[in-house]
Design brief:
Blueprint (H helix, E strand, L loop, with lengths): L13 H6 L3 H10 L7 H4 L10 H16 L6 H11 L6 H11 L6 H11 L4 H15 L7 H14 L3 H12 L6 H5 L7 H15 L1 H6 L4 H25 L9
Length: about 250
């Protein structure tokens, strides 16, 4: 997770006054319309070794607010989760809440904020994963990952440069394994080597091939189940093979 208070270093004093002026508030409103005013100085070189600047602060507030809106309604639990994670200093709460409330009106423009954050931390994937972790925490405030939230998170993850496999790993750390996750179906870790994935796949195919069950005189119902399971195994491996650009394995029955 992001370090407590780590994004508020440049949010007080004159910066807070600026936020209540036309610039960044206009940026939030502009993003809702599909535009974004970028802070070029804050973007340069990603400055991952320093405290994030005002542009990042606004971007993360807006992205969190739009994440809360992704399921169609912003709940008190989601707002509470946001403020609990970031531990906003008491003096800055009105400023943060004002931007949060403006950004949460709808989800339009969230891609611009995600791209802004991705540019600022393009050399620091751990920071980007921290941001994604925060968004997942907001999403699970009500205990359910809604389709709109999933689509939002997948898009942000893609903008951040994470692969589908990396996204599933991050998702699983918050919501548990997905029954449709090809790695879950094969029973291998997302970080498993290509050889381990291939070896596990071939073993599962041999163990579950319907021809072997028929030869052992297994009841027809079990053979049908084996066919369904084998189809799921093949489908899972195909997804992983395409993601990793692996060749087709030779299967010996």
């Amino acid at each position: 997770m992001l370090r407590p208070m780590s994004i508020w270093g440049k949010f007080g004093g004159a910066a807070a006054g600026f936020l209540l002026g036309g610039g960044p508030i206009g940026a939030v409103a502009g993003a809702v319309a599909g535009h974004f005013l970028f802070d070029r100085e804050a973007e340069q070189a990603g400055r991952s070794d320093e405290e994030p600047g005002v542009a990042f602060t606004i971007a993360i507030i807006a992205l969190g607010a739009k994440m809360a809106k992704a399921d169609g309604v912003v709940t008190d639990d989601e707002i509470e989760t946001f403020f609990r994670i970031f531990r906003v200093p008491p003096g800055e709460e009105p400023n943060v809440r004002r931007i949060f409330d403006l950004a949460r009106q709808d989800t339009a423009g969230y891609e611009a904020y995600a791209k802004q954050i991705a540019r600022m931390f393009r050399g620091n994937p751990a920071m980007l994963e921290d941001v994604l972790d925060v968004l997942f925490e907001i999403a699970k405030a009500d205990g359910i990952l809604h389709p709109g939230e999933l689509a939002f998170l997948e898009t942000v993850s893609d903008i951040f440069g994470f692969s589908p496999g990396e996204f599933r790993r991050i998702r699983a750390s918050h919501f548990g394994p997905d029954a449709a996750d090809p790695y879950f179906i094969l029973g291998v870790d997302h970080q498993a080597s290509d050889e381990e994935v291939r070896r596990t796949y071939l073993l599962l195919v041999r163990e579950n091939h319907p021809d072997k069950l028929v030869a052992r005189g297994v009841p027809e119902e079990f053979v049908r189940m084996a066919n369904d399971k084998l189809a799921a195994i093949n489908g899972a491996y195909d997804k992983i093979r395409q993601e990793r650009q692996l060749g087709s394995p030779s299967i010996s029955r």
